[in-house]
Amino acid sequence: MFHSQTELLEKIILGEDSTMEFKREMPHRNSLADEIAAFANSEGGTILIGVDDNREIVGIELQKLDHIEKTVVEICNDSIKPTVRIFTQKLPIDEKNILKIEISKGLFVHKTSNGYFIRQGSTKREMTTEQLARLIQSRSQARIIRFDEQFVPDTHRRTLRESLYQRFITEDAAEDEIEDLLIKKRLLCKEGRNIHASVAGVLMCHDAPGDYLYNSFIQAVYYSSKQKDANYQIDAKDFKGPLDQQIIDAFKFVRKHNEVSARKEVGRIDQPQYSMRAVFEAIVNAVVHRDYSKSESKIRLFMFADRLELYSPGALPNDLTIEELSHRQVTRNELLSHLLSNITLDDDVRNQVKRGHFFERRGEGVGIILNESETLSGKTPVYELHNEELCLTIFAAESLQESNDTIEK
Question: What are phi and psi of 39, to 5 degrees?
């Protein structure tokens, strides 16, 4: 926000305004949460801790600086919903230390325990009902523009990695054509005079989407027990790359722990716990259809001794019901589904899942999950809604050794 220390000093001399707030010392957590949320609900701004209201630089004791910065980050993650993205910087000015907190204009409407705040002039104010309604309307563009097509604050063309966006544009495109092509593909979008990466652009063409879209990753955990118990946790991974890589990594995680039993009769019979074709469809659906506007949770995949559970943030879109999942198709993220339908699978995965691309736009996914899994285990997978989070449970097939022992007895 400031290109030099001189520019920052000049701003301090001018005093507080709608983009600048001074704090002599670390304020109460709730008070600072209100200030940060107010900036995020407005046009963004900067908070300087260690500067008095009279513009005097009083500084922060060096031994307190790290603790204050850590507390500020915790406030943004825990005391403001949805989470606010900030940039912090420790600066020495006139031989005194200050903490600079830069807050971006929010993609959402942010709330603290005290309510909804907005920045007006040099103060924060709780929003009136009318102000809140207008802000929600202006930032809920998903009704007009799908969420995955909206711009992400603090991004630009260089946010998109060339090796990743090249997958979606023609190979022979000239350098001066690339930006226009990325806009046409909706990986970039215009906001006034500025060009930003779209939500889909960040998710598909940045190597760490979570840097901009909090919790946009898959967390996978494998337990050897039937319950969540750290004593029986065998493996745990967070997959944080572009979405197609997250899908592959999560797929391979399940494949690694997908136990295969065998029985010898006339010939050897092998039986896995899970159909990897069904697992692939389930992971793709969770990634494509999750609500990325909900930053409070990530996609969570749990493997137990007797089942697999997959949680995807977001209630079902529009008026879709759980009963309609197998025979009705509704896409929450149309752009993401289109991009994934254009990426081919490598031969290894292709042969296991019997498809050529990450996403097939035929609405067969849920049917494959249900039919393949029920054929293998004899139990129908279960979809449930838990607090605007869709949970899929796929039951593991019984070991052939166990079933053979039962027959012999």
Answer: -65, -45
Within a 10 A sphere around the Cβ of 333, how many other Cβ atoms? 26
Q: Yes or no: say if 310 and 391 are a contact pair by the CB < 8 Å rule.
A: yes
Residue-wise pLDDT for 244-256, tens only, equals 999 999 999 999 9
Cross-strand bridge partners of residue 311? 300, 391
Phi, psi values for residue 245, rounded to 5°: -70, -35
For helices 365-377 and 276-289, angle between their N-to-C axes, nearest 10 degrees: 150
This model's pTM is above 0.85: no
What's the pLDDT tens digit per position in 150-188? 888 889 999 999 999 999 987 777 888 899 999 999 999
CA distance 191 to 150: 9
Cα–Cα dist 270/227, whole Å: 26
Angle (nearest 5°) at CA 166 between 339 and 254: 55
Which residues, 6 or more positions from 220, have their beta carbon under 8 angstroms from its beta carbon? Answer: 235, 236, 237, 238, 239, 250, 253, 254, 300, 301, 302, 303
List Cβ neighbours of 95 (8 Å cut-off, separation of 6 or more): none
Instruction: For residue 341, give every residue at least 6 positions away whose Cβ sits within 8 Å of its Cβ, in sequence order, or none.
Output: 357, 358, 359, 360, 361
Which two tokens mark 225? 């027990």
For residue 275, the Cα-to-chain-centroid distance in whole angstroms is: 27
Identify the sign of the CA torsion 11, 16, 21, 27. Answer: positive
Q: Residues 207, 242: contact at Cβ < 8 Å?
A: yes
